[in-house]
Amino acid sequence: MTEPVIRIEHLYKEYATDAGPVPVLKDVDLTVMPGEFVAIMGPSGSGKSTFMNILGCLDVPSSGRYSLNGADVGAMNQDQLAQLRNQVIGFVFQGFNLLARASLEDNVALPLIYRGIGRTERLARANELLDKLGLSSHRSFHPNQISGGEQQRVAIARALVTAPKLLLADEPTGNLDTHTGQEIVALFAELNQREGITVVLITHEPDIAAHARRLVRLADGRIVHDGAMAQATPAAA
Amino acid sequence: MIAAMLGEAWVAMGANRLRSFLTMLGMVIGVSAVILMLAVGQGAQQQVQASIASMGSNLFIVLSGSVTSGGVRMGGGATPKLTLADAQAIAELPGVAAVAPSSPGTAQLVYGANNWSTMVIGTTPAYLKVRDWQLAEGYPFTDVDVRSATRVVLLGKTVAQNLFGDEDPVGKTLRIKNGPYVVLGVLAAKGQSLDGRDQDDTVIVPVTTAQRQLFGSQFPGSVRFIMVQANSAAEMPAVERQMTELLRQRHHLRQGADNDFFIHDLTALANSAAETAKVMSLMLGAIASVSLLVGGIGIMNIMLVSVTERTREIGIRMAIGARGRDILLQFLLEAIIISVIGCLIGVLLGVGGALLVERLSGMAVLITASAILMAFAVAASVGVFFGYYPARKAAAMRPIDALRYQ
Ligand SMILES: Nc1ncnc2c1ncn2[C@@H]1O[C@H](COP(=O)(O)OP(=O)(O)OP(=O)(O)O)[C@@H](O)[C@H]1O
Ligand SMILES: [Mg+2]
Questions:
Q1: Which of A198, B69, B160, B213 registers the highest number of CB atoms within 10 A of its CB?
Q2: What residues sit around ligand 2, an ion, with C-beta below 5 angstroms?
Q3: For B345-371, what is each residue's pLDDT tens digit?
Q4: How far is B319 from chain A (nearest CA, A)?
Q5: CA–CA min distance A100, chain B (Å)
Q6: CA-CA distance, B143 to B125, in Å (whole number)?
Q7: H-only helix segments in B310-323
Q8: Where is the domain boundary, B259, B286, B316?
Q9: Do residues B249 and B277 both lie within one domain?
């Protein structure tokens, strides 16, 4: 049997606030197998981003167990977590999060710096991806010189440059118009199908979620639905 | 990795040129101040040392001292109690290498259309030995000249230049107080004395000539001071004791009566002057170091602001795999680049400033490689030291907190 990419058991997360601890995730279990394409939906404030940040090893759970590729994330130190973020996970943000000062190719090549790869090879790999995503003519532009959809493509290229197993995206189309959003999610679907990259994405839009093959619904910190994407779902939402 | 980081640090600094420049300015001022102050301090120190070397070694100067006469205490050297005979007696003491009785005064020298007012020292040939003073040209006068009070003169460099210009003074006759004097020789240049006088602005004549022809004294045979050179530094205390005894005897001082002379140990005086110069040089350096420290704090301040401002960037970098130490290195490198560039500019400005000071004020400056290296090393470590805390702070951030930072 193949090992799950993500295995979450009894995961709790609470935030410490001035008014005491606020529980946000309550006993969440989730298993994602390699090659899956999962959409996470749920009302605002239901804990989607909180969950995603834990999946991306940007934050740690209050309790529960998280195994990534079979390795216990809870037992890892900061450097090992950084290595996971660099080598196993590609993260795409709603707000693109590109470095404004760096050119597009430098932005895409950035994760490779932390692998100690030389500049020539870094740029070669970055340009390969920019090519693939149809941005090669813009390689020396800066983020503020291109559209939001293009910026998100660059962010995806940056997430892909390290050839990750797992692509995580928190509302990647949230800042884009419907048409551009469809293009971006189609790109995720293609990466999932062609290259077998496991994709987990958060979205509010049923039309975006429809590209996924599995739907997880969160409400008030709990998973209330987990199943194959029904064709009817978009209409139902 | 480092190369990539350096490139990034460079870009980061370029992104905020004015700020990088202002931060650097603190370093520039600090380093140039240190180098300038050290150059001035060491220059002064070197000058003092040169003056000490020009004074002669193992020297005493014996002055006729204060006696209380009629309730009036008279200044040292005012009462001419020391005589040529005293000097001759001192010369007989064991441990004494040379003795030069001296009678100084000022006089106007005239040669052709030129005249020059200067100090005239009447002394014996031993004076040149005691002061370790060479002749640049010509010959010294001899004991014969002293005995017969001949009108001969040795010129200091400054006097020779002012009276004779390009002409060769040796063998020429000039007039002092209307009397003709033959120039026997020109003294080698000695430069400044400890108290800043031009030692070359002087002429030397036989002591007897000075007494009889120039500064006729009411006490015949008396001299203003006697310079005494001991054989070695070790013998100086013994020589001082014996001189005191001898002079008290010769001056018929009763038991318990005050000395009517002073014996100054010039070597001790010189050493304390050297010590003072050294302390001054250190103090200048210390004051300048404060500005270096301030420059360092400036770097820390800016780096802290920069860390706060770039919190999101730090978050992004961490999200794509930067480890704490990568972030640390990045910010540390920025601090180091700023301080090193600031340092280089500071070195250039400091050296330039020192040369300018020398040019404009004539103050002696001494720029040493060790001073530059020291300033550089200190500045670089200040950069690392004050860059470390902000860098550490950046590196310790949790990725999610850094990313969420608005
Ligand atoms: N750092 C924090 N400190 C305290 N409470 C927090 C923190 N971050 C999130 N929360 C709370 O946790 C809950 C879940 O937030 P989260 O961002 O995960 O929601 P979400 O499902 O992503 O919502 P949205 O769809 O609006 O993005 C919210 O009630 C929020 O107020
Ligand atoms: Mg969210």
A1: B160
A2: A 49
A3: 999 999 999 999 888 887 788 888 888
A4: 6
A5: 9
A6: 7
A7: 311-319
A8: B259
A9: no
